[in-house]
Amino acid sequence: MPVFVSRSNHRRTRWKHWSAAGVLALGLCQSLLAQTATDAPASRSLTEWLTRMHEASRQRAYTGTLVVSSASTMSASRIWHICDGTQQMERVETLTGAPRSTIRHNNDVITFAPDHKVAWVDRRESLGVFPELLRTPSNILPDFYGVREGSPERVAGHLADVVDILPRDSLRFGYRIWSEKKTGLVVKLQTLGEQGAVLEQVAFSELQLDAPVRMDKLKKMMGDTKGYEVHRQVLRKTTAEAEGWRLKETVPGFQSMSCHTRETETSSAPGQAPMQWVFSDGLASVSLFVEPFDPRRHGNEGAAVTGATHSVTRRIGNHWVTVLGEVPLGTVRRFAMALERLR
Known about the structure:
This protein is of the alpha+beta class. The chain folds into 2 domains: about 5-230, outer membrane lipoprotein receptor (LolB), chain A (Clam); about 235-340, MucB/RseB, C-terminal domain (Phosphorylase Kinase, domain 1), CATH 3.30.200.100. The protein is about 15% helix and about 40% strand. It is built from 7 helices and 22 strands. Strands 1, 2, 3, 4, 5, 6, 7, 8, 9, 10, 11, 12 and 13 form a 13-stranded mixed sheet that branches. A 7-stranded antiparallel sheet has the order 14-16-17-18-21-20-19. The protein has a two-stranded antiparallel sheet with strand order 15-22. The longest helix is centred in the first third of the chain and has 14 residues, at about 45-60.
């Protein structure tokens, strides 16, 4: 596992939160597309569409096969999801790549790696599709995104409404979303870049709604760690200021969602423990990872892209910073250059 809360955790905080407790945030960042956001009246407001999708991803019982494609790569997982009104459980089993099984009960998550007989336990506060949606003021969303409705289409045998979520500036991507007509469950999502280019796509190839998923069976599987070496992340809630960091200028629309450090035996002083600071505009999210600089592990500063995910690394004094998000490169760079040490 990576040094901190795992950088893969950032990527799970969205559309893989549709899959793994549910990812999302991305789009049409060209002004021409943004201008069409209000061309035709929508049957639901932007907030109504997003809330409907988010709640459906949390409340529905379903099983299905989810396929994720990005550039030349493709992966697939099998998903079982159940909610009894107060509790949610979900199991995600990889069908490609290294075998992995992730089970979530509300905020508690365990991931099994059967090949190595290792399991990782952690906590994730956000649930559902667009996990930060309900934690940001909904009245600011229309300032940064518009909505446009298309004609219904079938996905995995289900009729779905097609909705474009269109960015109003170049700081964020947009989305094309297929929302199952009766329930609102997201059955397909595309992250679109310039001129509507598909950067990433997640879709059910097979889906059974109201499936007979048994919560007691999932709970039993979650607790069965016999024969596994179990690793537990020890996370501490904090603030960036308490750790000696701040943004010297804000990035429009993005608000601080959470900040955690990972406890270690050798780095208990403020600013020394590895830190993850998460920002979101309600749809897109960006994570800032800060850790002590280590010349044996940290190379040259630079930028990288995988599908819709951009990252920038830079050294600030004795610290190494990685900024990662499903947003345009320019947005990631703004976060990276705005971060500064207080002491």
